Amino acid sequence: MTGASLDRMTKHRTTYESLLPSVVETVREAGRMLMEYWHVPREIRRKGRIDLVTTADLAVEKILKQRLVDILPAATFMAEESVSSDDLARPLDGPTWIIDPLDGTTNFAHGFPFVAISVALWDQGQVHLGLVHLPVLDELFHAVLGGGTRLNGKAVAVSGISDVENSLVATGFPYTIRDHLPPILTWLETMLAHTQGVRRAGSAAIDLAYTAAGRCDAFYEIQLKPWDTAAGWLLVTEAGGRVSRMDGGSFDPQTPSILASNGLIHEDMIALLAGKA
């Protein structure tokens, strides 16, 4: 990287870091709105066989976009409930807010409290701000590029577990699970046999946040979208962890598979998922 590139990155980091208090307040406001919907009957429709959307998804996305455009007018949006297939196919270009207004919609529909709001700011090939808010549990994780990861304002870090056998691993299942059952079941069987346990919260954003905080030692999943992983990717790396594709290749938010870990067990996880351990 050239000196000019470093100067630009430093400038962007300083600029975007200054936005953090406003973004945190915006995400908390969205969380308060989500909690209003939590206490009333759910209005639910289907986007697919098991892919749901609720009135809360739409309302939270709307308020996030209204507030964030005021915070950074130059940014564009990639938000789950308003994104087009063309948007997904295009490379991310320029400052972009990547938003999942309600990660864990199925959980929300059933009153299962693992639901999250995920907001990331992407620019210059990197995520600069990442926030994952669990309003039902009153937990807000945030990270700034180069500034570490925090949970409700207190610094957190990945775990120090160095062997898979003593690791707690998180995973998730795609909405298209019927199309991917053989590998999913193979990976699950492998993890159950080689780890201390497997957990499934039903939200990739939460799984990544929990990996960043050392509650899980690794997380893997396939068929994900940018809004599922962008914020959590930064949370994990800023907490000292490692993120790649499941095969160990370089990760970016438009990559559909992810493996996140504390770094210490990453290579072993790659081997297990590849059936080489």
The general outline is globular
Task: Determine the strand fraction and express it as a percent band.
Answer: 15-25%
The CATH topology label of the largest domain is Fructose-1,6-Bisphosphatase, Chain A, domain 1
What is the H-and-E element order?
A: HEEHEHEHEEEEEEHEHEHEEH
Highest-level CATH class of the largest domain: Alpha Beta
Total strands: the figure is 14
Structural class: alpha+beta
Helix percent reads 25-40%
What does this structure look like?
By secondary structure, this protein is an alpha+beta fold. It folds into 2 domains: 154 residues, Fructose-1,6-Bisphosphatase, Chain A, domain 1; 110 residues, D-Maltodextrin-Binding Protein, domain 2. It has 8 helices and 14 strands. The protein has a 7-stranded mixed beta sheet with strand order 3-4-5-6-7-8-9, with helices on both faces. It has a 5-stranded mixed beta sheet with strand order 11-10-12-14-13, sandwiched between helices. Strand 3, helix 3 and strand 4 form a beta-alpha-beta unit. Helix 1 packs antiparallel against helix 2 and helix 6 packs parallel to helix 7. It is globular and about 50 Å long.
